[in-house]
Write a structure and sequence with these properties.
Elements: H1 2-22, E1 28-37, E2 42-48, E3 52-60, E4 68-69, E5 73-75, E6 82-87, E7 95-102, E8 105-107, E9 114-116, E10 130-135, H2 158-164, E11 169-173, H3 187-198, H4 204-209, E12 211-215, H5 233-243, E13 259-263, E14 266-270, H6 293-305, E15 310-315, H7 333-345, E16 351-355, E17 362-366, E18 374-378, E19 410-417, E20 424-431, E21 436-443
Parallel strand pairs: 10-11, 11-12, 14-15, 15-16, 16-18
Antiparallel strand pairs: 1-2, 2-6, 3-4, 3-5, 3-7, 7-8, 7-9, 10-19, 13-14, 17-18, 19-20, 20-21
Helix pairs in contact: 3-5, 6-7
Length: about 450
């Protein structure tokens, strides 16, 4: 009986907590959300429910005398009621607190509003230690358009669990919302889907205090398994960039949601696996590509020019899995071989892969002849329905034993630790309550060339 009472009380507490999260200012639709953070600049995103004037007040943590008030930004219907602040001339390596004002009125939040700038560490200190959470396949229910039957999305408390870890970075690795049939037909419908999904109450604390970086996969780009032929890919990129602000996306002559950025001594290469994608069902040939020639050339040049200890390549779909029964880089063998051969020929050190899409999680390890091992950590789903994969994948020879996360919503956790020259990545997959399935450490020495 005591256990039953505890469960009942816990359920009441969860309901009250969710209700408290949902209580908001009538002018606030969602946010604030932290975007990118550089050494002297940070992006903060806010969306209002109607036209309003938005301002932020921010100060160095513990130093209220450093308070500064931003110039007002008018969130208008033409701009999807989004106010994007790019705070500049900030001191590096500093943590800040901030407040939100709508039409001059202070908007109280019951969770921390904090952001940070990156440290200027080179030639001065060891590189910083930091924590990343990541995931993919976040379905936010909408009874108006969802399929009949049980809701496809659930266990949204996973976002609160992630927030409690106080991570520095959050990576959204595709299917960050799910366009359904009416959504991918017009830009206005795409924006409606993002606006509604971003309002999820449990999501707000994580948005407000962790810096967010994102790429897309098929469901937040267009229809299921969509490719370069999607008619509204330009509009999809406009919408995506509005909801996940970045320093820049793509190249002047090759638009897309790919980009690179650094955090400490780790560089991240965020890839677009949709804009230039050939149809999955084309037979293999040199012309069948997932990334396209321009993006792949950019990636190779970026890897070659990088001095980072770890070079993390993030993609919406799996990159190294030898068992490809659905989608994955293995459907594009010429392009896959081109990238892997380049890494080996140019002796690129420290490459690790991250991915989503599969509705299950796993850590893969592929040992190519004459090369250090390639690792790939896949995390999926966040809130969509979990899946079990193809039956033959139970015996995947590339999977690190004990790392297959099936039938559970979960997220990836990466801790970057250690002194200069002794850096390591500690990888985990955690369930919705934060319980890790496993912990696997990769040292920088493991990802070096031996001769």
């Amino acid at each position: 009986m005591a256990a039953w009472r505890f469960v009942a009380l816990f359920g009441v507490w969860c309901a009250l907590w969710s209700f408290a999260l949902s209580q908001s200012h009538p002018l606030l639709s969602s946010g604030p959300m932290l975007g990118y953070a550089e050494m002297t600049e940070v992006a903060i995103w806010v969306q209002t429910s109607q036209e309003a004037t938005v301002q932020l007040r921010y100060w160095q943590q513990g130093k209220p005398e450093t308070s500064r008030l931003t110039d007002p930004i008018r969130a208008t219907k033409a701009g999807d009621h989004i106010a994007l602040f790019r705070l500049t001339d900030l001191p590096f390596g500093t943590r800040f607190e901030y407040e939100l004002y709508l039409n001059g009125e202070y908007v109280k939040r019951d969770y921390p509003l904090v952001f940070q700038t990156q440290p200027h560490w080179r030639w001065r200190t060891d590189p910083p230690e930091f924590t990343i959470v990541f995931g993919s396949c976040a379905y936010f229910n909408d009874p108006v358009v969802d399929r009949p039957g049980n809701p496809y999305g659930g266990e949204f408390e996973i976002f609160q669990t992630m927030h409690r870890l106080r991570p520095d970075l959050m990576f959204w690795l595709g299917d960050n919302v799910y366009y359904v049939e009416p959504d991918w037909l017009t830009e206005s419908a795409m924006r409606r889907r993002w606006r509604l999904s971003r309002q999820q109450p449990e999501l707000q604390p994580l948005l407000a205090s962790t810096h967010h970086y994102a790429i897309w996969d098929d469901h937040d780009y267009g229809p299921n398994n969509s490719d370069s032929s999607f008619r509204l890919k330009d509009a999809a990129l406009r919408v995506f960039a509005d909801y996940f602000p970045q320093v820049r996306y793509g190249l002047p002559d090759a638009p897309g949601c790919f980009y690179r950025f650094e955090w400490g001594d780790v560089e991240f290469f965020m890839l677009d696996n949709r804009t230039y994608r050939s149809p999955n069902n084309l037979p293999p040939s040199p012309d069948k590509r997932m990334f396209g020639k321009a993006q792949l050339e950019w990636l190779k040049n970026a890897l070659k020019s990088s001095n980072a200890t770890f070079k993390i390549i993030a993609c919406g779909g799996q990159m190294i899995n030898p068992m490809v029964y659905f989608e994955g880089f293995g459907l594009f063998p010429t392009e896959q071989q081109e990238l892997f051969d380049f890494i080996a020929r140019e002796r690129i050190t420290g490459v690790v892969f991250l991915s989503g899409d599969r509705h299950f999680g796993e850590l893969l390890k592929v040992q190519r002849e004459g090369c250090y091992p390639f690792y790939e950590l896949t995390a999926s789903p966040l809130t969509a329905e979990p899946a079990n994969g193809h039956p033959d994948e139970a015996n995947n020879p590339a999977r690190v034993p004990g790392t297959w996360m099936r039938g559970k919503r979960h997220f990836g956790l990466i801790r970057v630790l250690g002194k200069r020259g002794e850096r390591k990545l500690v990888l985990s997959l955690c369930d919705k309550d934060g319980k890790p399935l496993f912990e696997h450490t990769i040292t920088e020495s493991e990802l070096r060339w031996q001769n």
